[in-house]
Amino acid sequence: MNILYDERFDGVLPDVDKNALLVSLQTQMPELEILHQQEELKPYECDGLSAYRTTPMLVVLPRELAQVQGVLRVCHDRQVPVVVRGAGTGLSGGALPLEKGVLLVMARFNNILGIDPAARTARVQPGVRNLAISQAAAPFGLYYAPDPSSQIACSIGGNVAENAGGVHCLKYGLTVHNVLKVDILTVDGESLTLGSNALDSPGLDLLALFTGSEGMLGVITEVTVKLLPKPQTAKVLLAAFDSVEKAGRAVGDIIAAGIIPGGLEMMDNLAIRAAEDFIHAGYPVEAEAILLCELDGVEADVHDDCDRVRQVLVMAGATEVRLAKDEAERVRFWAGRKNAFPAVGRLSPDYYCMDGTIPRRELPGVLQAIAQLSAEYDLRVANVFHAGDGNMHPLILFDANQPGELDRAEALGGKILELCVKVGGSITGEHGVGREKINQMCAQFNSDELTLFHAVKAAFDPGGLLNPGKNIPTLHRCAEFGAMHVHMGQMPFPELERF
Amino acid sequence: MRSAHDTDNSDALLEQVNRALQNATPLRIQGSNSKAFLGRTTVGELIDTRSHRGIVSYDPTELVVTVRCGTPLAELAQVLDASQQMLPCEPPGFGDGATVGGMIAAGISGPRRPWSGSVRDFVLGTRLITGYGKHLRFGGEVMKNVAGYDLSRLMAGSYGCLGLITEVSLKVLPKPRRSLSISLEMDIDRALLRLAEWGQQPLPISAACHDGERLHLRLEGGEGSVAAAQDRLGGERLDASYWADLNEHRLEFFGQDEPLWRLSLPNNVPKVSLPGRQLIDWGGSQRWLKSDAPDSFIRQVVDEVGGHVTCYSHGLAESPFQPLPNALSRVHRNLKKQLDPKGIFNPGRLYEEL
């Protein structure tokens, strides 16, 4: 296993005098809550990627902006790495702590600062939960569109840091499309505003660059998001298919008919059975694949589109098409999909969730290849797929207590991601690189591209103190562990020593 | 789809950039030069992108098109149109020959922008010749991709200051089934109030402009929603060509002699009191001002209501783009230094120090 920070490949971290740092923080900010004893630090040793754990040196839980600024200044002066954490629900280990670093927890900044219905915006602190924004906006008939599956728990600061997605991205976009303004503190504690309350702002689009930067460029202290009027109505069609190829083609046919569904999800047989066992959503368990197609908007249009989509699905060879007859059934159809991860979790002691994206036309081939890999590595894989936007979530089933199974699951996962890159996709659609996919970055980008990423980092954080080891691998790491990005027949990084 | 003019000329562009890097020669990146009036004047050796043109790939069911920078915007629009698709952000050309590269570099969006998103919102990936003399690929041809920093979207509106965009992948969407434009008699104050109110309702508005006397609306969606909205709002029919004329600054408003300023504001700011004439677009978020008032005065008034100003009349303002606060300017300079260490790409076009 090579996923935890390794100074040999990820760069040497400064040695920190823990006690001196603690005293310095306590003296400068007597009110700041600091955890420093082993048993207090334990709960913070991982985020949503719980297979990887590191105990942080210190955890700080500021309540005021001045404290965040103070922590950053002290750490900057003493050259201490800082890892920022929100709700800790991230799936790629973006908030995995460092033994030689401070974990800065922003969860206590959980106030909604204002909802402006006329401007259709919400101004919130970074620790506000995603769903809480929509709940606060609901009395005005508005909501915040991006809805990652962890929306009940994940916080908006983390959503911006990861450019979080959800099941409605094809129509409503990712976080980057729904944020107007972000206030940040730089590594040395200086405050900056990226974006504005208008639809654009002068200069380079640093808001776009910052969104999804995984805590590498600055610390988010406030977010202003766009709100949308709630669609008048939403209807869901469930279609069953006797092959995944047919289901995949049906997705393309819906788009070709000029329809952009609010949500378009696909599940394979293993995922269908698991979900049905768990939720009793009424899914056809004999089907090789099902599609869930949600159409939302103005009543008259949704009605027409339902008819059109039904025809398309029948033409595409669906063995059954069902329209949720009422709101209760619609919610049930979705409940099966939204609980697919825990449902699959019941089939196996552990599962490992992948997040690759592919051009949709590649789906049949990629699913076939995944089935082959699954046989080769002797691990079951259930497939859940944001079909509308090409984001796959293969779930690899394994048992961490069986020697070698975690390693095999990781190796299989890595192969799946490399396959995604090979067909023109990406190693991560919405979960982020974090620490989890650091080696696969070497498959997606060559050394010159990675060098440019490091240049971006240097523009914001020349000392590399914010979240070291995440998001962008060192060239050294790629030379050692990376899947070989063989370019023009040459070995990558010929300039580097190998050992 | 392929046209006889298609050529991959990226090797020659790369060679020219590498020569410029060797000799530290500044480059002036240019397509059809249709947006030369925007930004500061930049001096440097001309690098003409128009030889690198053509659509690289387009699969309508994937909703993605990949196109070379020198391709005329009109050609791209035609290809998309043939499949009943479009670039929803409606980028203006400001000239017949406008290229895709210029469209990205300027990052300017048309009337649908508040509802559809901006040029940057539709960027999925780019290929870029960098300040290190490499031809690299960022982002991709998929809707969701969060691997690495988002350098592709950063290119939108960068005015060529960070590198040469050779290719871009864009998300496209089906054209709405029905589009209908109407015009309502109503003063500015009332129009802004109504727009704020309608914005909170699921109405199929896709463009909203007030010319000082009348509110013009475009309704787009399915037959049912457009008909229902028309019944509700009433008004007179408006020819759809109005929106293209607005977008390309062909309306009479833009023809007068006074300097043209673009005001970008929060959508719910009431009428801004400034000398001259105003035209409101983007449902209130973008306002055009024809005014002889001094640069500093306009900027101060707009700053107070949370907006910023761009001067659209070339050579008039020392800094056509709103000057940046110090801390932000420092980050801009750092980024420029990191991505274009020799300072060869369009120096000074966006800001003097970039």
TrEMBL record, chain A:
It comes from the Bacteria. Residues 52-230 form the FAD-binding PCMH-type domain. The keyword Flavoprotein applies. Gene3D superfamilies: 3.30.465.10, 3.30.70.2740, Vanillyl-alcohol Oxidase, Chain A, domain 4 (1.10.45.10). Keywords: FAD, Flavoprotein, Oxidoreductase. It holds the Pfam family FAD-oxidase_C. One of its GO terms (molecular function) is FAD binding. Its cofactor is FAD. GO terms for cellular component: glycolate oxidase complex. This is Glycolate oxidase subunit GlcD. The lineage of its organism: Bacteria, Pseudomonadati, Pseudomonadota, Gammaproteobacteria, Pseudomonadales.
UniProtKB/TrEMBL annotation, chain B:
GO terms for molecular function: catalytic activity; FAD binding. Residues 1-175 form the FAD-binding PCMH-type domain. It holds the Pfam family FAD_binding_4. Keywords: FAD, Flavoprotein. PROSITE patterns: FAD_PCMH. NCBIfam families: PRK11282.1 (NF008439). This is Glycolate oxidase subunit GlcE. It comes from Pseudomonas laurylsulfativorans.
